[in-house]
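tool=predict chain=A
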Amino acid sequence: LGIKANSSAEPNWFSNLLGSHVSPTTGAYYLEFKELRTLMYMKISLSDFLTVFSGRCRGFFFERRPGYALSCAFVFATGASTLLSVFWFFSDTKSDENPDPMKRIALKTCLTVWVYNLLWFVAQDIAKVLLYYVMSRFRKEEEDEMARRQMQRRVAGAIEADARAGRAAGYVREGSSTSVARRMTATTNEVSALNAKVAKLSTQLERLSGLVESLAKAQGEN
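tool=predict ok
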């Protein structure tokens, strides 16, 4: 921000937005170094807090409403930073106690910093969503494999726990896997029996259809 608005820079639209002093040599608007420190303080204060809104969810920042505590903290922190930058209630004179003094900035400089941060915040949020999309595309197979392994470990743990409970009770209980296998076998047998019945009914229906057609032909000839 400040590189484009120093006293030796050529006139440009960016320095006109940021600067509050006019250079006698180039005629460009510029910032004093004390003001540049204040500008950087305000920029960092705003951008760091805006990053919280972008980093709190994987989608766009507006898809998830922030909590009341976070909203109040945002208003207080950014409002305090803006007021300090515009008014700067402290001394701007260099001394042993204040080796790096800061100076208040103009209101238009403050507004420019706000707009600058908001534009980059939107760009950052879009880049975040795109990056998550690309990562999810490449990591989907890996995540599916991890989920499958976790499920296998859970099933194995459940079977082991079932077996331990049976041994502790003094008798052999049917394991979860055995029970599931028996239910699946019973279901398969029922489906096979139903398929056989359907096939038998289809055959009988075809015979009845043939008999009806024969009777119809006989009546027609008479």
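Confidence is low (pLDDT under 50) at residues 171-176. Strands lie at 21-22, 29-30.
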